[in-house]
Amino acid sequence: MARLPLDNIRVLDLSRVLAGPLAAQMLGDLGADVIKVERPGSGDDARVFGAPYLTGTDGRPTRENAFYLSANRNKRSVTVNIAHSRGQEIVRALAAKADIVLENYKVGDLKRYGLDYDAVKALNPGVIYCSVTGYGQTGPYAAKPGYDAVFQGQCGLMSVTGLPDDKPGGGPMKVGPSIVDVLTGLNVSNAILAALYSRDANGGTGQHIDVALLDCGVAALSHYAQIHLTSGEVPVRRGTQGNGGMPSTLFPCADGAIMLTAGNDAQYVRLCEAVERPDLADHPLFRTNILRVENRDALTDTFDAIFRRRSVAVWLERLEAFGIPSGPINDIGQVFADPQVRHRGMAVPVAHPLAPDLSVIRSPLNFSQTPIRDYAPPPMLGEHTDGVLAAELGLDEAALQALRDDGVI
């Protein structure tokens, strides 16, 4: 079997909750050896975020909850108390052997433990050290804490998500998942891979990477942000309506709803044929996409009345026959029952010691020569402490027990 892309890359993951752990998980999926450092006793904050918890083979809840399980596969868990001087020595020794150190402590926190970039760089000049914070290492907000929901509001995402103020239920709306955390995780993994390439293929050196959740949220606004930068216009909330080819929105049907987008003029003509209203193709308000965007509300109302007359299944069959991009509004259970999702194997089993039937979401990356085939289950708290410290630092059983007695591990 071909080696995975990041085989022989070592990651020291000092991050907690979601953005940092997701990035480290992505690197672990690609073959990196990820050592996750957690607090003795309590571990990653995500472990105590509440139900649902994994049900063990005895039918009782365990301490492994879904939030933690979502972001920590393909890692080894080591418990170390970094507030203890001996714990700091252990983490520094592990950092000295790492290609990548990933942390999401408040700005300046790790300096007092001798685990900041400058301290680690002195031990390991080639290290790629990535700091993930809410607002970045510099600026007037650098010292402020924050979580995903705060950044969804502050970056502008909530201002363009949800129904308009004049509609029932109108107002700013948070995206369901912790999407700024997820986007930050993607940006972090991308930045780390670029830094690795710079170091190992372009004759570069190790470096410090500064990634902020607020920056990632602003960047993710993409064309919404560019609308403002181009014209000065402040984009508004439009519910489920899209911003490109029209119509693009959710349409209620007789027994549910569908989402569709007619992305260009040719697709719009076919849409009119699919709904048995070819006259709408030449409607003076709708004949070009520019006109359809300008008259989006009238267009939506017109097709809304049409789609309410038949069922989801009937409409999706007709839309598919005419080549119109469309699909159902699935709940998460329906997602994992969907034949395409099942075919793509998006849920993969992992051999968790407490629940042998546990599944996790697989990496969406598919490589022809270095496929990702195996997934190690998210580790239990401190599951690999003894093994990692014995193999990496040469500590014997007596030394490990002494550290445990002193509350270091």
Structural class: alpha/beta
Describe the strand arrangement of the main beta sheet, using strand numbers. Answer: 5-2-1-6-7-8
Shape: elongated
Instruction: Compute the separation of the termini in Å.
Output: 36 Å
CATH architecture descriptor of the largest domain: 3-Layer(aba) Sandwich
CATH class of the largest domain: Alpha Beta
Main beta sheet: strand number and arrangement? 6 strands, parallel
Number of helices: 16
Total strands: the figure is 13
* Assigned CATH superfamily of the largest domain: Crotonobetainyl-coa:carnitine coa-transferase, domain 1
Q: Which spans have pLDDT < 50 for at least 5 consecutive residues?
A: none
The run of helices and strands is EHEEEHEHEHEHHEHHEEHHHHEHHEEHH
Measured by DSSP, the beta-strand proportion falls in: 5-15%
Rg, alpha carbons? 25 Å
**Might you state the CATH topology name of the largest domain?**
Rossmann fold
Number of domains: 2
Q: What can you tell me about this protein's structure?
A:
The protein is an alpha/beta fold and 409 residues long. The protein has two domains: 10-220 and 343-405, Rossmann fold, CATH 3.40.50; 248-328, formyl-coa transferase, domain 3 (2-Layer Sandwich), CATH 3.30.1540. It is 36% helix and 14% strand. The protein has 16 helices and 13 strands. It has helices spanning 19-29, 66-69, 85-96, 117-123, 148-154, 179-200, 213-220, 222-231, 265-274, 289-294, 296-307, 312-321, 332-337, 339-344, 385-393, 397-405, and strands at residues 10-13, 33-38, 53-55, 61-65, 76-79, 100-103, 128-133, 207-212, 248-252, 257-261, 326-328, 347-349, 359-361. The strands form four sheets. A six-stranded parallel beta sheet has the order 5-2-1-6-7-8, sandwiched between helices. α1 crosses α6 (179-200) and α6 crosses α7 (213-220). The protein is elongated, with a radius of gyration of 25 Å. The two termini are 36 Å apart. The mean pLDDT is 96.
